[in-house]
Amino acid sequence: MDSMTLPQELPTINFSLQDLKPGSSSWTSTCKQVRNALEEYGCFVALYPQVSQELMDNIFGQSRDLFEVPLENKVKNTSEEPYRGYIGPNPLLPLYEGIAIDNVTSPQETQKFRDLMWPNGKTQFCEITDLFAKLLGELENTVEKMMFESYGIPLEQYETLASSNSHLLRFLKYKIPEERDAALRFPSHTDKNFTTIIVQHDVGGLEVQTKDGYWISVESAPSQFLFMACDGLQVWSNDRVKAPHHRVKHCGDKTRYSLGMFTFNNGVFEVPKELVDDSHPLLYNQFDSLGFVRFYTTPEAKKAESPIKAYCGVKN
Fold it and tell me: Residue 173's domain is classified under what CATH number?
C-alpha cells in the first residue's frame, strides 16, 4: 500500500469568514465540516488568511536565520520531556533538524529562547514569533471548540481540557538528500500529542495516508495550514477520529523549511460519556498525555502494533 497514490485532495475548510461566531449559521456548518473531515481523514486543510503572507515570509525568514545559529547555542535548547528541545541530524533521521520553543504562547518563553539562541539579541524575532503563535493558537482553540460542539459535549468540558493544554512551536529543516533516489526525508508516523498544525512555505513534500492506504500530497499554498488529529485526540474521541499517518517525501533540490504547532495536554483525561454508546463501546482507559509520550520511548512501545492501545487500551 505504501506506494499507492491517488490524485485526491484533503477537505479544505474556510476559517476566514467574518461571522464565524458560536451560534451563527456559518459556525454550525463549519462545525459539521470539521467533524466530517476529522472522522474521514483525521485532518483537513484550514484556509486561514488571518496569518498574512507578510507574516509567513517573516516567520520563515526567522526560521532560516535560526538554523544558521552555532551548534553550541542550539544544543542549549533542552527539555526534560522526550521529543522536545533541539533534535539534530542522526543516523535514523539524517536529513532532519528541529528546534522547539515550549509554551510558545507565553511571550516570556519566546524571549528566553531568543536569548539562548542569540545572546546579543535578534531583531523582531519575538514580535514575529509571538504573533504567529497567537494566531495559530486561536485556530486550534476554534477547531477544538467546534469539535466539542459537534459531538454535543458541553463547552465547560472543553474549557477544562484546554486549561491543561500547552503549545510547542517546532522549526523544522529538511536537507537535500545526497542520493537522488532517497525518497523519504521523514518516515511515516502519527503524532503523539493532542493536535498538530503543520505549516509549509515554498517547498511542499508533506503526505497524509488515507484509511484505505492511499497517500495524499498536501500542497504548499498561501494561507493554508494542515490541521491534524494526533494520538491524544484519537483517545479522547474513542476512535471516532483516527490520528493519520503522515510523512515528508523528497521534494526536489531545495532545502525544505516548515513549522509545526503541537498542542500537548499536560493533564489526565478520559473519553467523554457522550462518545460511548452501543455502537462505540469504551476503547480507552484514563489517558495521561505526558505519561504516554514517555512510554513511547520504551522498548515495549516500539514492539507494539499500536503503542496507544498498548498504553491505555481497554483490554477485552
Answer: 2.60.120.330
